[in-house]
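Here is this case:
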Amino acid sequence: MSLRRANTALPILGASLGVVMLIFLCCAAPEVYSPGAGSSEVDSPSWHFGHGIIYSNLGRSDDIAYGDVDGDGDTDIVNNSDDNIYWYKNNGGSRPSWTRSGMIVPPHSDWSGEAGWLGTWVGDFDGDGDLDVVSGAKGDYGGRTHPTAWFENADGRGGSWTEHPLPITGDYYDHARTHDFNGDGRDDIIIQKKQGGGVYYLPSPSDPSGTWPSYKIGTGANGLSLFDVDRDGDMDVLVNNTWLENPGNPASTDWPVHQVGSIDGVKNSAGDLNGDGYTDIVYTSEEETGIWVYLGPADPKTGSWTQVTISTSHTGNHSNWLADFDRDGDLDILTAEMHTKGQHRVTVFENADGSGRNWIPHVMATTGSHNAIAVDINKDQMPDIVGKNFTSVSGNLNPLEVWYNTLAPNTSPTPTPTPSTVGTPPTAGLHLWFKADAGISGTTSNRVAQWNDQSSYGLHAVQTTDSKRPVYVGNVINGRPIVRFDGVDDDMRFGTWDIDGLQAMTIAMVSANTRFQTSQYGDEGGQHGTTHAPINWPENGDWGTTYLSPFQRSISWRFGTGEVDNINVYQRPQSIGGQFTITMSVKSATSEYLYVDGDLVKSKLNARPALANHVDYGDLASARGDTWFAGDIAEILVYAKALSDSERIQVRDYFRSKYFSGSPLSRRLSPPQPLLPLSPPSFLPRPAIYRIAAR
């Protein structure tokens, strides 16, 4: 990555100072970057994104969330306004047209007080695989003061909504974020009250239409986002200038509080800004002036954080989002001054050298924005910006608007690796290993008749019918080959391996789903959760199939144990199209985990410990209900053990160096702010991860 300067008046601190500060953290003053006069004049015209309007006039408006509301594969927008909550249908294309759909909230004839809604967010609260909405009323109705509710996407297409009350009333809440904290397949809710009246954890009950429990886990107003700050595999909560440590059992009021810095009244986001594997935090002052980065230590509970001041002039920054806008492998910062503050700048701060210390401001607009987000609207794998203002000013309209990313991914600095530069995966417990650059044999037209297992067990995959053989294609991902399955009838069978009785297993793969498919329960005419699986071990008894299925919009997986209704789905916040990803599922007795590009995105606890009800062979691309996987497989590793953390990281790094070193490297990021950023919060340099669980 080259360091690009906006102009010579822009001071950039040297790398040597950064090293000294890391070593003498207790004694040194915070590192400061102060943009000079004229810093908004960026010598990079290509960073001026294309502008579009989603809706012309919102009136007063607070929040923006995103997700595929109607299940058509496009990213839609959810937004609250004075009179109601609406969702905006993305009609597809590089610059999509938009349709404002009907009101989500049913009419309330007894409404009194202030109009409108706050803290609008999305999640799958009933575990049925579609997006629901949560929000809180500014006014009163139904005999309740500022009631909160979740709105069920009743038809799964955003055409019918059912309101269900939540137990939070009184001081109306300002923010909500969602995540499946307890691993039960349904998203839970974190609610933050506006006047500092508390932060609450609401786990979705087995009957989400019934009464929800609530636990007060902390206090504080201003920013709210979610991130695994201490990297222990469970989601923590960031509130203002603190983070609340998940105690392991989230249904607790004992969440330890850790303060980072003394700056108050801030929005927050978290991610790895400098590539050291540790959590960093970004603060933007909501009503005052300033933007700061806190570079995190190895131990975020007891270590010292390094403060880097990015701006001392940006004022009223209610927007704080991390995204890799130029796709160069590091996270940039989106922020925006409100239209009532400062110079009304909508700005992307470019992480100039990937250190998290040197930043270049790119001003996208000077019309202001409020609670803006970054999300890939048009499926080009580049994060766009969606924003709006808090209200109209001086009679002007308040549009819901989008800035389309016009940058080309910057992937040139890193050369394509040769096989000699790629490491090796761990071999202890390795029981099955398919890789497209070894063990391929076939007949004509590059059709693969046999794919040899590279482990010591020789579980070769075979297809004897020529017309049903997948195709070997060279130079597809980072100069390396893949095996391509047509989704019609291409498949292979491997064996013999009796996995029944195993209490630990790991499946890891690099793959791409080249046509929209899903295996969510209830979709495609009610077919079962195992459809279209790229790898599976079929069942010989109820609920026995084991599979891992990374699709464009979701990932479905199961370790079959005979447990009824054992269907696990992680829903991406938006489609990743035909992009390659690293996916790993791990079973360790009663605990099961799903990782995407190295990050834990979903877990299941209290599972049955032992695999059961399987045949003694497995299939590639052939699945239940005469369905087939459409896509490319570069490599699959299967272990008869649960990989340790160090082994899992070794597999991740092996895959990254082999298949992704010529493209942006994944960085840990707050869950997307409507869904990561599960504040989310944010667009990932890798495929965005936001879990929306399904049963």
In short: The chain has a mean pLDDT of 83.
